[in-house]
Amino acid sequence: MEQYYVIKGGIPLIGEVEIGGAKNAALAILAAAIMTDETVTIENLPDVRDINVLLDAMQGIGAKIDRLDEHTVKINGSLIQELRVEYECIKRIRASYYLLGALLGKYNHAEVALPGGCDIGSRPIDLHLKGFRALGADVTIKHGLIVAQAERLFGTHIYLDKVSVGATINIMMAAAMAEGKTIIENAAKEPHVVDVANFLNSMGANIRGAGTDVIRIFGVQKLHATEYSIIPDQIEAGTFMFAAAATKGDVTVKNVIPKHLEATSAKLVEVGCQVHEMDDAVRVISPGPMRHTQVTTLAYPGFPTDMQPQMSVLLGIAQGTSTVTESIFENRFRYVDELARMGANIKVESSIAIINGVPNYMGARVSAPDLRAGAALVIAGLAAEGVTVVDNIHYVERGYEQFEKKLCGIGAQIEKVSSEKEIQKFKLKVG
Question: Active site includes 118?
Answer without folding.
Answer: yes
